């Protein structure tokens, strides 16, 4: 049985490898944007000559528009051409933003640039997850794990690129260092030492500020350029450009790619189910419209809400830990040197990357719910041990590594689990991605505010509270899905009309496949 599953997954990947690699590559762009702000924030503060309170605006602007992008991303996933075009524009936008960040010497300009990058990140997040779920459906767990591995890879690469260019001693103004402010002093201020004086720290500079971190952003812009180029090449190969392409091909839904795959691998009996998935995912939050509400049980909506809450807290932990572990490490009682503390973010993202890579083979052997149980329990145990050994520098690194390993698989496994329970009839992917973005935005702001008022120790306490809430909602999600499963087993088909509709869909799907093959034959014959 396992060999049959492996052969099916291999056949699916061989038929869709170009599209799969495209979605993986754009998530590398997403990862580049996730982690670059942390290590470069003080150099950007020096560049914009802003106060500490003002520079935090850029965090909020990026996260807020990431949430907006995640919400509207579903509108671009209705067709294959619109999905790929949106991904190409979004990934190219990220390169442009990286290139112009060194030119933003005003705080509002910098906030606007990062808001644009956040919007592009949100669109990438929703479309990539949604399209992989559409293509692979019940086998999507493995490919979602790989997708989120590339996020960790990009988030690991960006701090490593930035590290050699970070200023350690002073802001250089023009050709001199007169009236320069020590960045080491600013790092200590940002970390929480003498917190009561943070709001009064200003950069008294004259003229334009020049920092070496500009080179890091330009390098990242160049590294990211092959991604939009690769997407445009794929669109050309698939004949999705308006000029000289088959109009009927351009109008086909992204799921036709999956329909073709199922047909060529001997699984054509599922085409009706595939088409239902296309229809259900095409409309943003279509499952939640009041007109359709009567046809679904309450457990259907409960799974959407509880799954979103699980990711709200798990991604909130990731965002807050990434943003403030440095702050916690250099403040009492840890008092780590700033250089040593800077490695914590790299360790965390490296652990997430390794965790998602190792989860790929594990997804073959275990169901998503089993991986979720291990991950959720592991997160709580790790945060509890971090609280107990809060004075240990060594365990801070060990705990950071363990936290990254355990939390790495929660997003892809939760997404695969909820979609599988709902039989791909709802809008779980859009709800999950939107909830995760909202949690990362709101909980990061909440943790920063609590740390400012209560001290650095509240950082771990907040993480523990978020972990317990996430686990509690996961338990509720498991119980609700059992109720939903019992309901679907008791009522496997709502009406004879649905069965007739399914038969019609199968006939329509077969016609679509035949028309596809016919258009390809014509294209190969006609000069």
UniProtKB/TrEMBL annotation:
Transmembrane domains' residue ranges: 21-42, 54-76, 83-101, 107-130, 142-162, 215-236, 305-329, 341-359, 371-389, 395-417, 429-451, 457-480
The family this protein is said to belong to: Belongs to the major facilitator superfamily.
Primary subcellular site in the record, as a coarse category: membrane
MF GO annotations: transmembrane transporter activity
InterPro entries according to UniProt: MFS (IPR011701), MFS_trans_sf (IPR036259)
CC per GO annotation: membrane
Species for this entry: Onychostoma macrolepis
Highest taxon above the source species: Eukaryota
Keyword line: Membrane, Transmembrane, Transmembrane helix
Protein's name according to its UniProt entry: Major facilitator superfamily domain-containing protein 4A
Record bears the keyword Oxidoreductase: no
Location of the protein in the cell: Membrane
Pfam families: MFS_1
Membrane topology reported for the UniProt record: Multi-pass membrane protein
């Amino acid at each position: 049985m396992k060999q049959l599953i492996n052969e099916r997954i291999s056949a699916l990947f061989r038929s869709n490898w170009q599209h799969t690699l495209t979605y993986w590559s754009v998530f590398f762009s997403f990862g580049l944007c996730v982690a670059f702000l942390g290590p470069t924030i003080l150099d950007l503060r020096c560049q914009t000559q802003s106060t500490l309170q003002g520079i935090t605006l850029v965090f909020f602007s990026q996260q807020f528009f990431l949430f907006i992008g995640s919400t509207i991303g579903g509108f671009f996933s209705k067709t294959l051409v619109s999905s790929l075009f949106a991904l190409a524009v979004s990934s190219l936008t990220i390169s442009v933003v990286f290139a112009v960040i060194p030119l933003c010497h005003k705080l509002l300009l910098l906030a606007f640039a990062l808001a644009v990058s956040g919007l592009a990140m949100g669109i990438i997040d929703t479309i990539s997850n949604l399209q992989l779920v559409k293509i692979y459906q019940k086998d999507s767990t493995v490919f979602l794990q790989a997708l989120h591995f590339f996020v960790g890879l990009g988030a690991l690469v960006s701090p490593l690129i930035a590290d050699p260019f970070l200023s350690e001693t002073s802001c250089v103004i023009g050709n001199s260092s007169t009236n320069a402010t020590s960045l080491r002093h600013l790092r200590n201020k940002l970390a929480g030492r003498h917190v009561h004086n943070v709001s009064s720290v200003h950069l008294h500079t004259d003229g334009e500020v020049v920092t070496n971190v500009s080179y890091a952003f330009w390098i990242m812009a160049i590294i990211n350029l092959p991604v939009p180029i690769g997407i445009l090449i794929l669109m050309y190969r698939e004949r999705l450009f308006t000029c000289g392409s088959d109009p009927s091909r351009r109008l086909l839904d992204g799921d036709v790619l999956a329909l073709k795959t199922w047909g060529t691998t001997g699984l054509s009996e599922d085409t009706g189910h595939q088409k239902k998935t296309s229809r259900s995912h095409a409309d943003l939050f279509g499952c939640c419209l009041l007109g359709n509400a009567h046809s679904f049980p309450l457990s259907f909506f409960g799974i959407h809400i509880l799954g979103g809450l699980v990711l709200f807290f798990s991604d909130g932990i990731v965002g807050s830990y990434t943003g403030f572990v440095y702050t916690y490490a250099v403040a009492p009682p840890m008092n780590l040197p700033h250089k040593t503390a800077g490695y914590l973010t790299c360790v965390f993202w490296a652990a997430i990357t390794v965790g998602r890579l190792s989860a790929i083979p594990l997804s073959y052997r275990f169901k998503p719910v089993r991986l979720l149980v291990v991950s959720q329990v592991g997160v709580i145990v790790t945060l509890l041990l971090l609280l107990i050994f809060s004075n240990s520098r060594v365990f801070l690194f060990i705990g950071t590594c363990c936290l990254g390993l355990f939390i790495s698989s929660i997003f892809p496994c939760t997404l695969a689990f909820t979609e599988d329970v709902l039989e791909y009839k709802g809008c779980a992917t859009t709800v999950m991605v939107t909830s995760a973005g909202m949690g990362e935005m709101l909980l990061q702001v909440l943790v920063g505010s609590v740390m400012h008022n209560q001290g650095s120790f509240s950082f771990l306490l907040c993480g523990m509270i978020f972990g317990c809430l996430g686990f509690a909602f996961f338990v509720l999600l498991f119980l609700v899905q059992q109720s939903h499963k019992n309901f679907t087993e008791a009522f496997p088909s709502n009406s004879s009309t649905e069965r007739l509709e399914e038969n019609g869909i199968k006939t329509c799907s077969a016609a679509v496949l035949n028309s596809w093959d016919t258009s390809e034959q014509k294209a190969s014959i006609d000069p």
